[in-house]
Structures are given as C-alpha cells and as structure tokens.
Design brief:
235 residues, alpha/beta
C-alpha cells in the first residue's frame, strides 16, 4: 500500500483528499503546517507528498527546498490557490514534480500521481527493461531506477529520472521541448515548456562536471535538447 503525506491547513481539503485516496487504497498521513510536514517527510519514506503552498509556520516552498536539500526525492505535487506563473515556476525550480491550482478535482490529483508513477517505467517498448544504459560515465538502470556517474550514485527526483531515461533511450536524437513535455509529463501542459528548461537545468546540476558547459545534455539552439556521450569528458 503506497503512503501519501497530505499537507494542507484547510480541513475540508484534507478530508476530501484523504477520503478519495483511501478509496484508491493509499495509506494517508496528514499535516496542517509546514514544520510538521517537514518532520514527517524526513522521518518516513512516503511515495507521494501533496503539499499546499500557503501553510502556517513554514510555507510549501521552504518545505520543498529543505527536503530536496536533504536528498529526499519523494515526488511532490504542490497544491496552490495562486494561479500566478511565478509561483508555479518557483515551486518547480525548488524541486516540486508537479502542481495543481485550487480548486481541483481529487480525481485529477490521483491521475497526476498515477502519471508520475508511470513515468518511472521504461518509456520505449523496444528497449529491454532489464538492460542498463551506458552513456559515457553515466550508467542508468531502468529496473532499479538508479543512475551512476563514474560509480557514484546520483540522487535524482522521479521527474529528473524520467526525463533522463527518456532522453537516454533516444540518445543523440534532438528532442523539442514540446516532445519532452508530452513524453515525460504525459498530459496537457500546452505552452508551458519552461517546465522542461527547469528540469533540464536540474539534471545538468547533477550529471555534468560543469553545468554551465554541459557535455552530456546539449542544447541545440532553435530545436531543443539531446543527450550524448562526451568525446572528451572533463574530470
């Protein structure tokens, strides 16, 4: 049974999400402030965190920042009453995997959770899911959901991992932001290609020796991105 942490200071939303998640056989833990949420998320390995943006004591942005700082890679779906693009982008930049603007349907929340779970699966049927992918010093294991660089395991969030795997299974192919958005996020984010740029930046921070001069995740100006093995990798 998958465990979900629901964090919101509105009792009606907590009750609504808890009821619907339990109907889908999720185990639910709740919190109504950011400090409690952070403590629970650090102490327990949850499968998902549904996190309100505006919380007492510590807001959702800060909770997300601290969790990612502590290498907690649990998928975070941010719940916000704010519809400003700035808030969405900041949340994603801090490490949230997705967001939903209130009011939302509990069915949509569950659909987003299931979509994130699916993105952890190999995305190309022609690739043997037991087969490791080696690109330069990167070794990606689709069955174990792990990534190593020069033998050292990298701590990627589920979204970062899904994006890297999608690119790796299409090595040397230039993929547009729209292709990546559709392939990795898997539902309608029309016009929101900025999300791709944010996750690409996060990936570069983790897989590149020098993220400002990427050797693996290359920008093809005017077209998109591609993942390739560097000819001469920097130390």
């Amino acid at each position: 049974m998958k465990q979900v942490l629901v964090v919101d200071d509105e009792p009606s939303i907590v009750t609504l999400l808890t009821y619907n998640l339990k109907k889908e056989h999720y185990q639910v833990t709740t919190a109504n402030d950011g400090v409690t949420a952070l403590q629970l998320a650090l102490a327990t390995k949850f499968d998902f965190i549904l996190l309100d943006l505006m919380l007492p004591q510590m807001d959702g942005m800060e909770v997300t920042r601290r969790l990612r700082q502590e290498k907690v890679t649990t998928p975070i779906i941010m719940l916000t009453a704010k519809d400003a693009e700035f808030d969405k982008i900041v949340g994603l930049e801090l490490g949230a995997d997705d967001y939903l603007t209130k009011p939302f349907s509990p069915r949509e929340v569950i659909a987003r959770m299931k979509a994130i779970s699916r993105r952890l699966q190999p995305v190309t049927p022609s690739v043997n899911e037991d087969e490791q992918i080696q690109i330069g010093a990167l070794k990606i294991s689709p069955t174990e959901y792990t990534v190593f660089r020069n033998g050292q395991q990298l701590q990627l969030t589920p979204r970062e991992y899904a994006l890297l795997l999608y690119l790796a299974q299409r090595q040397n192919r230039v993929l547009s932001r729209e292709q990546l958005l559709n392939g990795v996020w898997g539902y309608d984010y029309a016009g929101q290609t900025r999300m791709v740029d944010i996750q690409i930046s996060h990936l570069r921070d983790k897989i590149e020796v020098d993220p400002k001069q990427p050797q693996y995740l290359v920008t093809v100006r005017g077209f998109g991105y591609k993942l390739e093995a560097p000819q001469h990798e920097a130390d």
